[in-house]
Amino acid sequence: MRVQVAVLSLALPALVSGALFPPGTKVKSIDAKGFRKAMSTNDTSIVAFVAPWCGHCQRMAPELSKAAKGLDPLVPVYAVDCDAEQNKPLCAQQGVQGFPTVKIFPRGKTLPPKPFDGQDRTAKEFVSWAERSVPSRSKKLYETKSIEPWISENTTSDRLLLLTKADKVPLLWSVLANKYRDNFKFAYHRDRKGKSSVALGFEAGGEKESKLLVYPKGSTTPVRYQGTLKSGPLSEFFDSIIDGTADLSTPSADSETATSAASATAETSTATPSASAASVAEPEAEETPIAAPEDAGADADAASPVPEQTPEEPAVTGEAEATPKHEEL
Predict the structure, then answer these.
(1) Which residues does residue 190 pair with via DSSP β-bridges, in sequence order?
(2) So where are the chain's domains?
(3) Which residue stretches of 84-170 are H helix?
(4) What is the pLDDT of residues 249-279, one digit of tens each?
(5) Fewer CB within 10 Å: N-end or C-end of the chain?
(6) What φ, ψ does residue 78 adopt, rounded to 5°?
(7) Which fold has domain 143-264?
(8) Contact 146, 154 (CB under 8 A)
(9) pLDDT digits (tens, 9 = 90+) for 137-161
(10) How do residues 155-200 score in pLDDT, each as one tens digit?
(11) Do 2-135+280-322 and 143-264 have matching folds?
């Protein structure tokens, strides 16, 4: 009997995933121990506090799973089954009063969590929420003329500058800046037409091509990163800078005139703040009360303030559209 109880206890964290989320989901079920481990990394993560019997949780699960797929591996998504006896103290500690309760932890245990504030519990809303919740540790350089002063003012640190043609800072860059906030100075500049790249002594580049420039400590001459602009290779490269194994001694041949070129063509500003679309206020998403029914019969319906015949939530038009991949700059 004791062996059976122990096996059941080990399986408990996975039960909520199997009961709520589709096969192969990127939503990882955790218990109190797993929660503490997730918070110890001081990275940004999403945690959904749910109950398998909750109708709202069941409707949310496919959308959260799509969001988790789009955010993987940058912003992990977890689920805690608050109906499990071993998790009830954790759920009480987190102030869970209804299901689902979804929170984002911007920097593990070092910053307070924020409750989900989207219009609807859709994959698109979850992804957008995650994007704006990662702590900003990268300075936005609006104009080309702002680059040279930033380089010169921070020579006591290794500096990482992203030249991007995207209209907003890539999520991957924000996540890396948060992760390595104590090791580097981060900045990014929107180089929509490649003019700033030319001003810095590089080619304009393709339509969506980003460039990562490294300014080693004590130097104002950049070394261009030539590897793949994805999470894994970039993390390995940053780690190699930290441990001293990266070769930053030989800058790219076309970057010898970078600093002087930036000063001479400072007026060629290309980046301006982009206006975000105004959000339309809608009623807040409903929650199921925390009290669980004792059985799956009539009491289950009585426990929820919303009848089971509630209108369906807006459909998401395509997983690819709702959950764009963010793993590359």
Answers:
(1) 164
(2) 2-135+280-322, 143-264
(3) 88-93, 123-133, 147-153
(4) 754 434 444 444 444 443 333 333 333 333 3
(5) N
(6) -120, 160
(7) Glutaredoxin (3.40.30)
(8) no
(9) 999 999 999 999 999 999 999 999 9
(10) 999 999 999 999 999 999 999 999 999 999 999 999 999 999 999 9
(11) yes
For strands 223-224 and 211-215, give the pairing: antiparallel
Q: Which two tokens stand for residue 140?
A: 């936005």
CATH topology of domain 2-135+280-322: Glutaredoxin (3.40.30)
Tokens of 78: 């977890």
The amino acid occupying position 209 is E
Residue (of 146, 222, 138) closest to 188 by Cα position = 138
Angle (CA) 217-222-223 rounded to 5° is 95
| Closest C-alpha among 16, 107, 121, 8 to residue 66 | 121
For residue 111, give both structure tokens. 């910053």
Residue matched to tokens 């593990």: 108
Q: Within its chain, how far is the Cα of 16 from the centroid?
A: 23
CA torsion angle 59 63 64 68 (round to 10) = 160
